[in-house]
Structure formats: C-alpha cells, structure tokens
C-alpha cells in the first residue's frame, strides 16, 4: 500500500458561470464538489493505476464530512483524522465568456496540539503496511513547521521510503530528516532556495538533505538528480489541457518507483507520461489512460550534465 | 407567533479578501457563514424585537445542516422540512481594496412533488398557532409557480393574515389568492407589472388581488395603498450602510402590524424606522436598536394623492 498524507485537505468546489460580474451578482449555472488536496490527487491516480493506496490527513466539520463522502464515492480507502475545526474549501469560478478560472482559497482549519499528536499516532500505525509514503502540500495553521521532518523520521524508522512534495519553510525544515525524494517545480525551486539557476537550487536542496530531487519543468518534463546519476525526461510533444494535478500524477509514478525499486529511467518515463496524460484530463487526480499508454514508450530519457 | 416561510433558503457565506484577482488565485482572509433567505432575515428581526417567531421552509444536505445549526445558534425556533438535495449557498466576496462585494448565487435545490406536499402539510400544521404569516423570496426549482397561492389559501382558511414578499411570476400567480399585504420594491414593481409609474403598478397589483400594497422606495421610505387610505412614510434622513435586508426589516414591522391590527400610520412609521436602522447594521436580519428607537418618532407619515 502507498500511503498519502494531505494535512491541508480541502473540498474543491467548482462554479460554472456565464460571466463573472465583479462587484455585482452572478448566477452559478452548475456546482461540482470534490475532495481536494495534493495527496488526495496522488491517491486518485494510484487507485486508477490499480495500485493499493490509503489517504490520510486531517479533516473536520461538515465540510470534512463532504470530503469523506466524496472519497467513499471514489472508493478510495481513507484513514483521515477528525479535527474540531471545519475543513477549508476552495472555490474555482469558471467564467465561460472569459475562458478563465478565478480561485478563492479559504484559510486552513486551525489544528490543536492534541489533534496533531493524534494524527502522528495514526500515521505511525499506518506505516508498517506502507511500501512508500507521499507527504504533499502546505501545512494548516497550528501544525509545527517541521511537521514533515517528524513524519519523515517515523517513516525512516519503519524503513518506508518517502516522497515529499511541498515548498518554502515546510520543505526547508524537512530536509534534515533526509527524504528519499522531493519533487519541486521550477517556481518552487526559486521560491524555496532564492536561486534562479535550477541546477544550483537542486544541488542546494540535496546538500541540505534530500537524497533525490526530481524537478518538474512543466511541458519540458522532469529533471532528476539522484545518487545513481542525473537524467532528463521529456514528453514527445506538448499536451494541451489543465495542468492542475500534473505534478501530483508525476509524484504518483515516482512513489510507485520508490516502492518497487525500479530503475530511474523507467520510473521517470512513466512519471512524465502520467503527468502529460493528466494534463489531457479535465480534473486533477485523473488522467487520459489511452494517452498514458501511448506516451510511456515515447518519452525521451537521457543523462545530462547541463540544463 | 409569526410564521416565516423561506422556500429557497441559502447558507450565506462571506469571504473577506484583500483584493479579488479575476482569472487568478485569491487567498480568503476570513470566512463567515450564516443562515440566509428573506424569511429567515424577517424572523431574526422579529426575534430581536422580542416577537415570538418560527422559521419554516425547505433545507437539505450538509449545507442544510449548517443552516439549521446557525438558526439554533441564534436561538431561532425552526420547523424546517428536509429535502433530498443539498441546500444552496451564496458566496459574497468582499474586496477590501475595491470596497465592493461580488455575489455568487448557487441555483436552488430541486424539490420533488412529495417534498412539496410534505412541506404543505407541515405548514398547515403550524398555521393554527400563527398570528400572521410571512411568505418571502423566490421559489426553488420543482415547486409549482402558484405555490404562494396555495399557501395563502391555507392561511386564509385559518384566518391568518399573510404578508407576501416576492416578485415576477410567483407574485402574479399568488395575487388571485388575495394576500393581505405585498411589499414590492421599486424595481420589483416595474419588473412584475412592466409599468414604470409606481402608482399605476401598485393599482394593477391591487386590481389583481392584493388587499394592501406597501412599496419600498429605498432611502425614500415607504408608500402604502390600503383599503383604509394611502400613506407615504419617510425617514428623517438618509442612513449610510448595507441596504441588504432593509426590505426584510420593513416586512417584520408590517407583519407585527397585521398580527396586532395596529393603525397603518404607526405600523408604517415603525417599518420605515426599522428598515433604516437595519441599513446601519452590518448584516441582513440585524438592526441598530438605538437608532431604531430614535427614528421611530421622527418618521414623517402623511396621506398622499400623487407620488
């Protein structure tokens, strides 16, 4: 089983409107609700791949209940821990006339010290059944900034390799706990290290403790710096669509690779293909299965010295 | 007890943002949730006035549960009927930089024939304890367009006077059931009758069945055309603030007047004072009690022949 952790889960609400009237009233044509958060997206992709997965994290209130209902609907096993405060929502307003989406991001629910300890205990209980663990996304208020470092140490104690996908302070504070793999994107590399050269940023993150860094460069594919070598993996062509969740699809493939101990070149090819196939699917956490099969053999993976 | 009916109740959510970024992501600084809908606002005002009131209407799903929780928090007695579909939300995004609010209005939940019959039965059971009934707002999908006519006839059968506050087709379809009082605003008069002269529009609505028409003209106060005479009531000065809910505050005072059989001049003075005092309060359904006391004796009420 691959365990995914989403500490700052959200109920993602999508409103379709004919045109968004700023400063006035807009009728919503349709409402869709979905359990959201990067770790949950990773589990959705794993589940579709036929890989056994469990979702954990923190949810609360009636929004948390909606979130759980949606996971049950998707047949995704969950071991979420309930907190006192209401889970957050994100509201995406898709404006049909402008062809653009405006996102409203609620602040995360405040987590108490007791709730954080309860989560840590639950997570520790799940680790012995996990072949890999994925720690994704931002930290909600109240959770210690070195939360991921604690979770990484617990995973290491059970011999479970971990993928960490976060940015900024939570990423920097986690590195001393030596994650097996981190997956920043180009913006996160700059934001976290302050360095504009991606390779220098990657090396800084490795020097601080990350064993492997796989950086996602959008339509340019992935760059991997590992103890076994450096690779660059590119999709054969650009895929049009919704890039939200493309990084989560890549993380799903990377976690499977870590769990199976597969060679980097094949893992990276799958990660790039899955990421591109997810861009072709309308929702984060889903992918175009036919496109994935086709792209898998077309991804060019080769060593590199310079970017 | 004054019974208020809100068939298309909503959970009103308010997001405060520093600036709304259309087509991009905006962090929400604070989230407030409140049971909303015109009838519910009327009950809030009645409750604050110390008048016994009960809220009824249709709610469903987890949003309906939040709505009920908020009424319980406000100590407002409710006899809401549960439907299968999820209650709607409205999202008001207050942009601090622009000083303006953008409203997103979800469509109402679909009501089945069985649910409508269950509501009608519940309503009929509540009428014998009511001194007046207030029917407010739009109709959700699935409810017959002449819904208010049926509810008015049931009220009349129990000798309970009714205030109807709606517009368009639901208002026109209700008039043959002869409501004791309707309270259109200036825009609703035009939208419902197609007439631009407010007095001609009022007379048309009375000819179609409304016994009394009290039209709200915003900061200009109220105009009442009743079987007992015609009055105009004006506040002594303009009140700055949030006009949402001002009409509901006026309806609360009018319903109290109908229930008590008070003379029109005093009822209209209170309605204008309460309406103006509600503009001074930040939320619909609340009012500035000190301002209300002060304005009550300052409202000018007099007969009129022309507007």
From TrEMBL, chains A, B:
Where does the Carbohydrate kinase PfkB domain start and stop, copy by copy?
12-284
**MF GO annotations:** ATP binding; phosphofructokinase activity
GO cellular component entries:
cytosol
Q: Is GTP-binding a UniProt keyword of this protein? A: no
PROSITE patterns from the xrefs? PFKB_KINASES_1, PFKB_KINASES_2
Say if the entry is tagged with keyword Ligase.
no
What Pfam families would the database entry show?
Answer: PfkB
Keywords in UniProt for this one? ATP-binding, Kinase, Nucleotide-binding, Transferase
Which InterPro entries does the record match to this protein? Answer: Carboh/pur_kinase_PfkB_CS, PfkB_dom, Ribokinase-like, Tagatose/fructose_Pkinase
GO BP: any one term: carbohydrate catabolic process
Q: Which family does it belong to?
A: Belongs to the carbohydrate kinase PfkB family.
List the PANTHER family hit by this protein, alphabetically. Answer: 1-PHOSPHOFRUCTOKINASE, 1-PHOSPHOFRUCTOKINASE-RELATED
**What is the protein name stated in its UniProt record?**
1-phosphofructokinase
